[in-house]
Design a protein that fits this description.
Layout (H helix, E strand, L loop, with lengths): L2 E3 H8 L3 H9 L7 E2 L6 E4 L2 H13 L4 H9 L2 H33 L10 E5 L2 E10 L4 H14 L12 E5 L9 E9 L4 H7 L4 E5 L2 E7 L8 H25 L8 E3 L1 H4 L2 E4 L15 E9 L2
Length: about 300
């Protein structure tokens, strides 16, 4: 192996000096030697293969943390991970295309194809909750943290949608700002106080009985996070259109039939857990987006 300067390595790898310094700081592509007196970096020519691999992985829009992990993998494992990343990227692209088609139809005054909306009754429930402001990047880790809490200390399972855990989006995280998210797990009312003592990091509260309009989110079994966000947006638009249609249908009635309470109860995604479920066996109705409201009778 021949040692070459950072300038020569940059020229031969087609990477800028700025990129090489960044990759060194992040531990992605570390020089073989750094001169203690001058701080000048030197690389082995054998590292050129790694540098070219970094270039290609970044062209696939992989974050540096993922690139670092892939460089440490054996080739077969790295190949599997890259294939998985590309499948996720294609799923996200398909979801963005759906969102773009919806926007084009809407702006042209056409009636876009929407997700089917249905309603269901939800009884009063005791909930153990974890609420926090999170960034767009941190929202998924927050969900894993919540699920990890009650998987380590199992909670009693409750049947059906009313017993499924869910996430309330009080405000949605985006590239522009953090969002306020609350994860909730229904628990048996008779055991709620005792369970709350076992989970001091969670807050116990009661949610009133209500009706929910909901739309099932497609393709969540093995989909990417990016694709999930776009499906969420389309489902939210479907629910908004459904609410507007209900308001038009009952506009002549003395009192509104729907009394929306999303300010109090919050738009939520519900996850219907199934014992033994894997990514390959997720049912079509596993996740849905719901808007709570009360029906005037």
């Amino acid at each position: 192996m021949k040692e070459i300067s950072i300038g020569e390595f940059a020229r031969r790898s087609r990477l800028s000096l700025k990129a090489l310094r960044l990759y060194d700081e992040r531990g992605v592509l570390v020089p073989s030697r750094v001169d203690q007196a001058s701080g000048y970096r030197y690389y082995d020519t054998a590292q050129l293969d790694q540098a070219r691999l970094v270039v290609m992985l970044r062209q696939l829009q992989l974050p540096l943390a993922a690139v670092k992990e892939l460089l440490a993998c054996d080739p077969a494992d790295a190949a599997t991970r890259i294939a998985e990343h590309w499948r996720d990227a294609e799923a996200a692209h398909d979801a963005r295309r759906e969102l773009a088609d919806y926007l084009v139809s809407r702006l042209r005054g056409e009636r876009p194809v929407m997700y089917e909306v249905a309603t269901r009754e939800i009884p009063e429930r005791s909930l153990l909750c974890l609420k926090r402001e999170v960034s767009e990047q941190g929202q998924w880790a927050f969900g894993k943290e919540f699920i990890g809490i009650w998987r380590k200390r199992p909670l009693p399972l409750m049947e059906g949608r009313a017993g499924a855990f869910f996430c309330i989006w009080w405000s949605h995280p985006s590239a522009d700002s953090d969002g306020l998210i609350e994860w909730c797990r229904p628990v048996p009312p008779a055991e709620a106080a005792a369970l709350a003592d076992r989970y001091p990091e969670l807050t116990l509260r009661t949610e009133p009985a209500h009706t929910e309009a909901f739309a099932t989110l497609p393709g969540w079994g093995g989909g990417s996070q990016a694709a999930a966000v776009h499906h969420w947006q389309l489902a939210f638009e479907s629910l908004g259109a459904w609410v507007q249609e209900q308001e038009r249908e009952h506009a002549d009635e003395p009192e509104p039939r729907l009394a929306l309470t999303d300010e109090d109860l919050g738009i939520r995604t519900t996850y219907l857990a199934t014992p033994g479920m894997t990514a390959a066996t997720v049912p079509d109705d596993y996740i849905d987006l719901a808007v709570p409201f009360a029906v005037e009778r």
